[in-house]
Amino acid sequence: MAAETLEFKAELKQLLHLITHSLYSDREIFLRELISNASDAINKVRFDALANADKLEGNTDWKIKLTPNAEAKTLTISDNGIGMTREEVIANLGTVAQSGTKAFLEAAKQAGKSGEAPGLIGQFGVGFYSAFMVADKVTVVTRGPGSPADGTRWESDGQGAYTLEAAEKPARGTDVILHLKDDAKDFLDQWRLRSLVRKFSDFLEHPVTMDVEKEVGEGEEKKKEVTEETLNSRKAIWLRSKSEVKPEEYDEFYKSLTHDSDGPADIIHYAAEGKTEFKVLCFVPARKPWGFDYEEPVAGLKLYVQRVLIMDRCEQLLPTYLRFVKGVVDSADLPLNVSRELLQQNPLLDVIQKSVVKNVLESLGGMKNIEFDKYLGFYKAFGTVLKEGLTRDWSNREKIADLLLFESANTEAGKFTTLAEYVGKMPEGQKDIAYLIGESAEQLRHSPYLEAFRAKGQDVLLLTDPIDEFAIPQLGEYKGKKLVAADRGEAAGGGDVPDGDKERFKALLGALKEKLPDVADVRLTNRLTESAACLVADANGVSAHMERLMERMGRDSGTAKRVLELNPNHATVEAVRTLHEKDAADVRLDLYARLLYEQAVVAEGSKVSDPVAFAKRVNDLIARDAKAGA
Ligand SMILES: Nc1ncnc2c1ncn2[C@@H]1O[C@H](COP(=O)(O)OP(=O)(O)OP(=O)(O)O)[C@@H](O)[C@H]1O
Hints:
Layout: E1 4-7, H1 10-22, H2 29-51, E2 64-69, E3 74-79, H3 86-93, H4 101-114, H5 117-123, E4 135-143, E5 151-156, E6 161-167, E7 173-180, H6 190-201, E8 208-216, E9 223-230, H7 247-258, E10 266-272, E11 278-284, E12 301-305, E13 308-314, E14 326-331, H8 340-344, H9 347-370, H10 372-392, H11 397-401, E15 407-408, H12 419-424, E16 433-437, H13 441-445, H14 451-455, E17 461-463, H15 468-475, E18 477-478, E19 481-485, H16 499-515, E20 519-524, E21 533-536, H17 544-552, E22 562-566, H18 571-582, H19 588-603, H20 611-629
Parallel strand pairs: 2-8, 12-14, 16-17, 16-19, 20-22
Antiparallel strand pairs: 1-6, 2-3, 3-7, 4-5, 4-7, 5-6, 8-9, 10-11, 11-14, 12-13, 15-17, 18-19, 21-22
Helix pairs in contact: 1-4, 2-6, 4-5, 9-10, 10-15, 16-18
Adenosine-5'-triphosphate (ATP) is lined by residues 33, 37-38, 41, 79, 81-84, 92-93, 122, 125-128, 174.
Organism: Gemmata obscuriglobus
Family: Belongs to the heat shock protein 90 family.
Subunit structure: Homodimer.
């Protein structure tokens, strides 16, 4: 049958254009990507064979073989893995399945200028196409379990189309044949290949081999002999003890696992011993992977049973709030031949998860105490995700709370405090931990709600992460101290005012309440020292910040009316009181009531319902005042 020509999908064309035209630095990573695909393919067939040994066809001498051919200027990467059917070739090598491709293209365009782009390739699951960084033509000959006639040959120059035809393939598996570009001939060099394999794939369980010519014998007997050599040491890095692993080995393993071009922020490597035994090697990335924010949140670790990869992402091993953690768990206590469904019910997985969570949280705590700058980088990337744990992982709430960072009324802008530090600095008499939620710390620093706290020498945490609105009330308390919102009725700032004031203002408060249908009540407060008025929510009501959030999401927050609090010691409030005492029917009182309310709305960072009318009211005041003063 003649070869059939098919077009790449549009996005893939764009991607290939980018790969072949702009990504030049670091192109050696193509070898890591292709070896990693070959290794995945071997793992797949080996796993399938646990249930159906016939698939193996006796071909179980697992290996990935590199064949450089100087004459033909090709480098071939062969494996005896699962192979692909014709349909699978079309699905896997003719389209980019990942939804993040568009984002990749954008990111790569940006990063292309700064030379970061190759690091991005793997992150977006386009590893195979990195072959076009070094090859101007790629041929793939592959077949799954079956007979030699079932093979498929795929070929492309990466320009927009590929050809497909049936092919004879004696053994199951895949050959990827790279027709190297003129400037990529160094990848034919055996020493270069050997050093790249050691760098990228040393820990790989399967041997990566190459035929090497060696001189053997002495004198007359001397002759050249070709032997197949294994290039990688094959020591699964997670099975070794910590002291045996070099930092650069961790680094390379991490990079092969995540495709990150930088090293990890934190390494968690231990062997659990006792009733159940397992080994864990996890990493905390130093920065957010591209796509982390818009991809569906999924967590998981690779699960090996005695070095056989059973699941690429075992969700039972990691809670979603630690989904930034990447790594491997190897357990000798799980049965090798169970189905994935049964495996997921195995109680041992919960035991392992508990242990992983404990170790990750402790390790993050250590980073915070010892390498704060590094921790800050981590926290800025993943702090929001970590906070999800406050609402989901009750048993570890306190440990997670210890990892939180906050700006506060007393910190300099851009500096942070912790709950433990806050509690340590609480002046005598302060019972609760006060916090204020809003859009930016800068705006919150000017909030009238801070006044009373400042006057008492108390600090207030300034929270600006949208999740804080849910997560912090869920936390509820820390070390026996209640967390209270500074703009709520119950907060330490609000308190009783002297009876004399209450008596003097009684009539005015009644009148204002009538004039202001938007508020639930008008009362005096000692919360304020500089401002005239503020709005507070009931202890159980919806806060102003929450209302703004709900509005933005297009939801009705079922706005509960709030309480207008007035500062009896403020000159403006006192002047309005005097005016009301003289003539309760003075028409100006309507205007003043409205403005007292509206300035409280503006001060808390919300919008007045009719900004034009508000401006007109202020202008009327200015005009009157200016006229009186002229
Ligand atoms: N040697 C191979 N044997 C069998 N299938 C392969 C082989 N190489 C690639 N594939 C198939 O092609 C798909 C696409 O490969 P590609 O490297 O582009 O992405 P990926 O491996 O899925 O993602 P990532 O590179 O992020 O791991 C693979 O998922 C696999 O199904």
